[in-house]
Amino acid sequence: MKYLTDQLLIEVYHRAVDLQLDPDFIELLNTEIERRNIRLAQVVSA
User: Would the keyword Lipoprotein turn up in this protein's UniProt record (predicted)?
Assistant: First the structure.
């Protein structure tokens, strides 16, 4: 995860949700997003 830029992490997260990938994978992405203090609500509205 540390090799992903914030932008790429967000894109991967949204794509994983859209494709309804494994919930554990989505949770892993979400945990990393929270660890980096990225707020998805701000990203979506930006």
Answer: no
Whether 18 is in a domain gets the answer: yes
Boundaries of domain holding 26: 6-45
Q: Is 1 a domain residue?
A: no
d(CA 42, CA 46): 6
What is the DSSP secondary-structure string of 1-46?
Answer: -TTS-HHHHHHHHHHHHHTT--HHHHHHHHHHHHHTT--HHHHHH-
